[in-house]
Amino acid sequence: MKKEFFVSPKEPIDRILAVTGQNTPVIFDVTKPEGASRESADVSKLRQVAGGFSPQIALDKGHLEMVEYFKNVFYINKIGDM
């Protein structure tokens, strides 16, 4: 199983907070040792079923696009409720 890269559980949270411009404190309960201190994904099966998948968008850009998408979806839904 090939690991592409490792990230801490906090890293994606920090990236999303950065692209949303939020300065929200994130508190981890270190008294609960469940889970891993870092995570990685094995994308070999994805590559196999998706014909050689390779990410085309950097993680930060993907987070930004995801945030913008959801802003638009919630904005449109909010207008629809008026």
Keywords:
48% helix; single chain; 82 residues; flat; mainly alpha
Task: Please explain how this structure is put together.
The protein is flat and about 40 Å long. The protein contains three helices and no strands. The N and C termini lie far apart (51 Å). The chain has one domain (10-80). The relative contact order is 0.17. It has 82 residues and is mainly alpha-helical. It has helices at 10-20, 44-49, 59-80.
Unreliable stretches: none
* Count of individual beta strands: 0
Overall helicity = 40-55%
What are the secondary-structure elements, in order, as H or E?
Answer: HHH
Described by strand count, sense and barrel closure, the largest sheet is: none
Q: What is the count of distinct domains?
A: 1
Structural class by sheet pairing and helices: mainly alpha
Q: In what range is the share of β-strand residues? A: under 5%
What's the arrangement of secondary structure elements?
Blueprint: H1 10-20, H2 44-49, H3 59-80
Concise synopsis of the structure shown:
The chain is mainly alpha-helical. The protein has helices spanning 10-20, 44-49, 59-80.
